Amino acid sequence: MSTPPVKPKPEDDDDDVNPYGVLKESEEELRLAAKNKPVFGDIADKFKKSNRGPAQMLLVLPTNLLVAAGSLTAIAGVLAIIIGLWPLVFTDAPPSDEEYAEQLVIIFVGFVLLLWGCLVCLGASKMQSLESYAWALAGAVLGIPMLAGIFALIALRDPRVRAGFEEVEGAIDEPDEDDEEDDDEQDEDDDEEDERPRKKARR
């Protein structure tokens, strides 16, 4: 008596050792994927990095020192004006000529200090925003007596800071080549006009 043939078992996912395995790509597919892989380096290199960020970062400490020094100077000026006006306004007896002159000197010094401090703060503001190199330099020079201007002058001499100012249009006042050519042409025209009357006089 012959044994009946054994029927093959149907394929079942449960019998698979790793039913969630990742299919391996062929060498041809890997080669095509590497060939068609996008490259972003060329796109990033087309854009020039801005110099304003590094320049403003280097100017944070000098501008803060200038603002502090300018504010203290302006406050001192306001106090001097109040001290000078107080005996002239809030007094029963009229001041003598000498006292009046002394108080006027104190008031004048107060106004000078107030104006000085405001100019230092203005220069610090122009420096931090990279709007005007001339104003920044003026604020730094005015801040030298308070020692804050020394740090500002050192920072303004940094090539990275100057590059940041040059990136802002109108921050550094430098004559353009076109303007120089126009000035040369204007000088030549003026010379020609001066020579014409001389030639007529010789005739």
Question: What labels describe this entry?
Answer:
mainly alpha; elongated; 203 residues; 67% helix
Description:
The N and C termini lie far apart (149 Å). The mean pLDDT is 78. It is built from 9 helices and no strands. Helix 3 packs across helix 8 (159-167), helix 4 (60-89) packs antiparallel against helix 5 and helix 5 (97-128) crosses helix 6. It is an all-alpha fold and 203 residues long.
Low-confidence parts, pLDDT < 50 over ≥5 residues?
Answer: none
Helix content: 55-70%
> Based on helices, strands and strand pairing, what is the structural class?
mainly alpha
Count of distinct strands = 0
Main beta-sheet annotation: none
Please indicate the percent range of residues in DSSP E strands (runs of 2 or more).
under 5%
Order of helix and strand elements from N to C terminus: HHHHHHHHH
- Our count of helices gives 9
Apparent shape: elongated
Question: What topology does this entry show?
Answer:
Blueprint: H1 27-35, H2 41-45, H3 52-58, H4 60-89, H5 97-128, H6 133-142, H7 148-156, H8 159-167, H9 177-202
Helix pairs in contact: 3-8, 4-5, 4-7, 5-6, 6-7
Compact summary:
The chain has 203 residues and is mainly alpha-helical. It is elongated, with a radius of gyration of 39 Å.
